[in-house]
Amino acid sequence: MSLTKARKIISFILSVLIVMGGNLFFNTTLIRYTVCNEKYMLNVFSSDELNEQCKTNFKDRAKVLEAKSSIPARVFESINAEDTDINKTAVARLFRGEGGELFNNDIVERFEGLCTEYLKGNAISYDKEKIYNTAVLAARVYSDSFGIGNSERLMDMMGTFNSHYSIYWSAGLLLMAVSCVLILVLYSKKRERRCMFYSSFSALGLSLTTIGAGCIIFKPISGVFIEPEMYAAAMEKAFDGAAVILIVLGLLLAVVFFAALVTLYKKRLNSDNFHI
Predict the structure, then answer these.
(1) Fewer Cβ atoms within 10 A, N terminus or C terminus of the chain?
(2) Is residue 64 a contact partner of residue 107, using CB atoms and an 8 Å limit?
(3) pLDDT along the chain (276 residues), means of 10
(4) Beta-strand (E) ranges in 117-200?
(5) Which residues of 72-103 are buried (b: 16+ CB within 10 A; e: fewer)?
(6) pTM above 0.85, yes or no
(7) What residues contact residue 119 under an 8 Å CB cut-off, 6+ apart?
(8) How far apart are CA 107 and CA 116, in angstroms?
C-alpha cells in the first residue's frame, strides 16, 4: 500500500472519529441543558395551555366527586386558587428524585379542611370518616390531574444520564481533540489541514442535523410512558425543542465549514503549489 493511499485511509478514519466525538459532545451537552435541566423543563411544563388542560381535567373529575359526596365541585376546585404553579411543583419534585406525583398527607388535609369548612358554613351535619375518605379521593384526583404519573422510568433515565454526563462529554471532546492533533501531525501543509478540518466538521454538522430531524420524525421519547396524556405530549414537545436546537446547530456548522471548504477549493484552483 502506497503512503498516499494509507494517508487517505487514516484521514477518513480521523474524520469519522471527529464526527463521532462531535456527536457525543454536542448531543450530551444539549440533553444535559434541555430535557435533563430543571429550568428548561419548568418552562415547558408551566405553559398556560398545559395548565389549562390540567385544570379542565380536574374540573371534570371534580364533578364525579360531587356526585359521590354531595359536596359541590367548586369546593374541590377552590384549591386551584391556592396553587398557582402546580405543574412547576410536579417538575421540581421530579428533579429532586421524589417522583412527580402530588399525593401526600398535606393535600389530603387541605381537601379535608375545604370540605369541613363548606359543611360547617352551611350548617350541614357530616361524618368525619366519610369526609376524610372524600378528601383522600380528592387528593388522588388532584395528583392524577396535576402530578406526573409513572415517572419512575423517566427519573431513572435522567439520573443515569446526569451521573454519566461528564464522562460522555469529556470522551467526545477528547476524541475530537486527539483526532485534530493527529491531522496536524499527518499533514504538514496548512491548506491540507484546513481541507481535512472543514470536511470533517461539515460532515459533523450534517450528522447533527440528520439526528435532530430523525428525533422529530421517529419520536424516540414516546417509549417513556408518563401520565396524564398532556404531560406525555409536553415531554415530546421538550424533546422536539431540543431536536430543533440540534438541527439549527448542525446546519450552522455545515454551512459555515462547507462555505470555508468551497472557498479553499477556489483558492486551490488558482494555485499551482497546493497538492493533496
Answers:
(1) N
(2) no
(3) 81 96 97 94 88 91 93 92 73 87 92 94 92 95 91 87 94 97 91 93 97 91 75 90 97 97 85 51
(4) none
(5) ebebbbbbbeeeeebbbbbbbbbbeeebbbbb
(6) yes
(7) 71, 125, 126, 131
(8) 14
